[in-house]
Design brief:
The chain is an alpha/beta fold. It has a single domain (about 1-230), classed as P-loop containing nucleotide triphosphate hydrolases (Rossmann fold), CATH 3.40.50.300. It is about 35% helix and about 30% strand. It has helices at about 40-50, 75-85, 100-110, 115-125, 140-155, 170-185, 195-200, 220-225, 230-235, and strands spanning about 1-10, 15-25, 30-35, 55-60, 65, 85, 160-165, 190-195, 205-210, 215-220, 235-245, 245-255. The strands form three sheets. A six-stranded mixed β-sheet has the order 6-7-8-3-9-10, with helices on both faces. A four-stranded antiparallel β-sheet has the order 2-1-4-5, covered by helices on one side. Helix 3 crosses helix 4 (about 115-125). The longest helix has 13 residues, at about 140-155. The mean pLDDT is about 90.
Length: about 260
């Protein structure tokens, strides 16, 4: 479904974000994109979503080369924008309509889809948002905003859902709800996180980005979670001393900060 070949991306002033990254994603896969803060996870998701474009290398979606020029084609633009969607880490960055109803309806309206009203009704009911449809999105709680953003994406009936640190700003109850939802979805998902304690709930295959912005692991998540040295090198695990009853020893700890 998606293929990345030798992808390199740098921001202005030569700030490298990704270096020679290559991988493929098959339909229906649930992938966890792991890496420490600043390794390039968000940049990679934006490229997969066609928001930014690599300096070198290729990105193909269903064998179509995705570039700024090709996305201007009417047919590819509509197919790609309805097929691949991205949930930003902070919901406020995605909200701009006057009501929750308009937020959920916006994408289908823009793409000329049928049954907009039914799509809004179905997803608002699924996410418990029906009573909030006339509310202003910015008046909602953080968890409610996250649900509105997800409903607005899933109303497009996409094939690929990309999520950037989706639990970073959620309370435990809403985090549990989101994890259950992602497990039940049948579409392809790519979830970027540095939270190792949640990673096993979000997918079976993992892509690991190093702090020098390279892909250093592509394989089963269970194998990676057992490789402490690799996790230490990626800055997803650390060791420090503990004292208990006068005895000193060292522990491994995961970096589950937000």
């Amino acid at each position: 479904m998606m293929r990345i070949e030798g992808l390199t991306f740098a921001y202005p002033e030569e700030k490298l974000a990704l270096s020679d990254v290559s991988f493929e994603i098959r339909a229906g896969e649930k992938i966890v994109l792991l890496g420490a803060n600043g390794c390039g996870k968000s940049t990679l998701l934006k490229i997969l979503n066609g928001l930014i474009f690599p300096r070198s290398g290729k990105y193909l979606f269903r064998d179509h080369r995705i570039t700024k020029r090709t996305l201007k084609g009417r047919g590819l633009h509509r197919d790609f924008r309805s097929s691949v969607v991205l949930l930003f880490q902070r919901p406020d960055a995605m909200l701009f309509n006057p009501t929750v109803y308009d937020e959920i309806a916006f994408g289908p309206r823009q793409l000329g889809m049928d049954g907009v009203e039914q799509r809004v009704a179905d997803w608002s009911e699924e996410f418990g948002l029906t009573d909030l449809l006339r509310r202003e999105p910015f008046s909602l709680s953080g968890g409610e905003k996250q649900k509105v953003c997800l409903a607005s994406l899933l109303a497009l009936e996409p094939d690929v859902l990309l999520l950037d640190e989706p639990t970073a700003n959620l309370d435990p109850r809403t985090t549990g709800w989101l994890v259950d939802l992602l497990q039940d979805l049948t579409l392809t998902t790519v979830v970027a996180t540095h939270n190792l304690s949640l990673a096993a709930e979000l997918g079976e295959r993992t892509l690991l980005l190093s702090e020098d912005h390279r892909l250093t692991y592509d394989g089963p998540l269970t194998h990676l979670l057992g490789d402490r040295e690799r996790l230490l090198e990626a800055n997803l695990l650390h060791r420090h001393r503990h004292r208990h009853e006068g005895l000193e020893h060292r522990h491994y700890h995961t970096h589950d900060w937000s």
